[in-house]
Amino acid sequence: MGSITSPVAAGVAPASLSPSRRAWLRFKRNRLGYWSLLIFCALVLVSLCAELVSNDRPLIVRYEGQTYFPMLKDYPEKTFGGDFETPTDYLDPFIRERITGGANWALYTLNPYGPNTLNYFAKFFGGKTDLAFQRFIEIWGSMPELYLLIIFSAVFAPSISLLLILLSLFGWMGLSDYVRAEFLRNRQLDYVKAARALGVGNAQIIWRHILPNSLTPVVTFLPFRMSAAILALTSLDFLGLGVPPGTPSLGELLSQGKNSIDAWWISLSTFGVLVVTLLLLTFMGDALRDALDPRKADK
């Protein structure tokens, strides 16, 4: 006699099961969805204990024979040999040296940064240099780009060079955060530490080692930034605030198509040129990214 296989083992929901049970079995047969659920539930459980995984305060501090629990109580900086009564910054190199030197020790979380942590030792130089540039980016980024372009176009004689300069003044901000994050990551890698140990100067480390390996987000997003600049220039030309009259432009063609509804081919051909141009820029950007990726230099 042949072996009898149960309907549940065969992946078939018997009629005697409840509708919810049958639905669960159907869901479980989808392996990708089932494992996604398990991973999602695991992440939810981890997030419930997030403060024990990611926190800028140590779990336990043993300092000069006393035991402290910074996650449960705020301790002033003077407790650990500091000068102020303000809450202790446990990422401060001075405090770290005090609570981990000699017989003292501290048990930090897996990720010693919390959601409100201000890391004053980020980027390559960090400190005041990083803070000054970050504040400049925040101020510059708060300016309304399109309105400023319209104002400058109305004040100065419009030209292609002027519009390119104005677009460039604002186009770099969308990439600065990614480059900063890449610098922050790469400056901690072994090849940078080895270069420092060999006596290589900061400028040479930045230009020869870190910068080439930090250009991946720039090259990746460059086609999209160029596409956005083309669309902005087209919008200005469409509104009559772009290049001087008589200069061939896609925005001028769109304006002519709007004014001549019966000549549908004007708008259709302009739209086609825009789509093809943006697609070509994207494909070329992908090829450029692969070509400039140092990790693929020997492949």
Sheet-strand content, in percent, reads under 5%
For the biggest sheet, the summary is:
3 strands, antiparallel
The general outline is extended
- Helix percent reads 55-70%
End-to-end Cα distance: 59 Å
Q: What is the element string, with H for helices and E for strands?
A: HHHEEHEHHHHHHHHH
Mean pLDDT: 76
Instruction: Say how many strands there are.
Output: 3
Number of helices: 13
Low-confidence spans: 1-5
Class inferred from helices and paired strands: mainly alpha
Strand order of the largest sheet: 2-1-3
What does this protein look like?
Helix 12 runs antiparallel to helix 13 (264-292). The longest helix has 29 residues, at 264-292. A hairpin with a 2-residue loop joins strand 1 (60-63) and strand 2 (66-68). The protein is 59% helix and 3% strand. It has helices spanning 19-29, 31-48, 50-53, 93-100, 127-141, 145-155, 160-171, 173-186, 190-197, 202-214, 216-238, 250-259, 264-292; strands at residues 60-63, 66-68, 105-107. Mean pLDDT is 76; it is low at 1-5. The chain is built from 13 helices and three strands. A three-stranded antiparallel beta sheet has the order 2-1-3, covered by helices on one side. By secondary structure, the protein is mainly α.
